[in-house]
Amino acid sequence: MTADDDQARNERLSRNSNVALTPEQLDAVAALAKNNRYAKQSSWKTLKELPLKQRMSFFVEHFLAAIIAIAIALALIIAFIVSYVTKAPDPELTVQGFDMSNYSGQFDTLRNEFVSSQGLKDKRLVDVAGDMDILTNASSDDSAKVLAMVSAGQINVVFGNKANFASLNKRGLVSSVKSVLGKTGMKKYASAWVDAKGAHTTDASKVVGLDLSHARKWKSAGLPDNIYIGFSNVEKTKTYARHFIAFLDIR
After folding, report:
1. Per-residue pLDDT tens for 64-98?
2. Considering the entire predicted model, what is its pTM?
3. Which of these, 186, 118, 196, 138, lies nearest to 163 by C-alpha position?
4. What would be the CATH architecture of the domain defined by 93-247?
């Protein structure tokens, strides 16, 4: 296209416009009006055909946002998969103690031995801990948490000293031994029977717990006397709860 052609075209643009354009503006409009050689081809093909110096800016404008979005989506998918695969299984049995956080090592040993005795492959299927507190008014008191967990079946067996055991019974969080072991089963542990206050009893109708001072496994793990164990919400875990009591070897 010659200089005369450019001048003629600019004059036509000026006549067809309601606004008077300067020569510089007319040149800019003319440049925009030229056919774009890349208009009808893919961005990827355009990127390959562009001069090297223009490729980076073109890449940032047309590809970077999409690549970042894809990377974020992939990261989220991978995170979800990893979280799902590594998620701890719901315990088959949770044995919760009170005011005994100093014995965490012994509880781990007890848990591991029980898991092995049951042939379970994942030790996370059983939880034995003693780190809860229900007898203080401080922010560390776990009373509300315990109630919620028992109601949800997340605490199956409880143990503690006489004060804790009596408090758990008073709150209705301990079931009778007979309801879990049966009349015949509970007779095997008659020497360890205790009532709702943690006092020894020979009356089968009053038995709600067992004295762990009579449990050989408990004592061999280095755990203290005068701790009492009882059943809580065992609706879905009664078998493992029975097995745990048998494992303790109460005599």
Report:
1. 778 888 889 888 888 777 776 666 678 899 999 99
2. 0.67
3. 196
4. 3-Layer(aba) Sandwich (3.40)
